[in-house]
Each structure stands twice: as C-alpha cells, then as structure tokens.
Design a protein that fits this description.
- The protein has 97 residues and is of the alpha+beta class.
- The chain has one domain: YaeB-like fold (2-Layer Sandwich).
- The protein has 2 helices and 5 strands.
- Strands 1-5-4-3-2 form a 5-stranded mixed beta sheet.
- Helix 1 packs antiparallel against helix 2.
- 24% of the residues are buried.
Length: 97
C-alpha cells in the first residue's frame, strides 16, 4: 500500500474533534490528532487488520485507535481511504459514510 487518503468528511471529523478537545487543552487536541494520523498511516501496511463492516457499506472496515476515535475506511490497490473518524460513542448507523 502506498498511503492513506482522508476524505473531506474525515478531514472535517478531525477538525471537529480537534476543536472540541482544544476547548479544554490544545496540546491534548494536537496529541489526539497526531495519534489518529499515525495509526491511520499504520493501516497502509496492514489494511485488512480492521473489522469488516458490511452492515455499513460494501468494503467498509473499522479500526479503533488508541484515542476515543474509530477510523472507518476502504482499502484499494494502492491506498487506504479514511471515510470517517468518529468518536466511539457515536451512533454510526445514523452517520453517512
């Protein structure tokens, strides 16, 4: 796998997460996003490590990060596409991937 691509929705999720956490602690917000991005990059070496999520859409997988956020993604021939980055308490069934 060559790399990781974040969709516009995933980028918005990251921004919203950072803004929420930064209200209390900007350093913690930075660390959280750094951890998420590092773990997303790790998916490029083992893209099938995540759980298959056929109930969400064909080909979608999820991977819990070391933060309270879960990566929802698709694998391709040369990349991993991060569809969404959502808090683990979020009702994924009510969210558009």
């Amino acid at each position: 796998m060559a790399g990781v691509v974040f969709t516009q929705s995933a980028q918005t999720d990251l921004l919203e997460a950072w803004l929420f956490i930064a209200e209390e602690n900007q350093t913690a917000a930075d660390r959280t996003l750094d951890a998420i991005e590092l773990q997303a990059q790790a998916l490029s070496t083992q893209p099938l490590i995540g759980r298959a999520r056929p109930e969400l859409a064909e080909g979608v997988r999820s991977w819990p990060t070391s933060t309270p956020y879960i990566l929802y993604y698709l694998t391709g021939n040369d990349s991993v596409t991060i569809l969404r980055v959502l808090h683990h308490a979020r009702d994924i069934q009510s969210v558009s991937l």
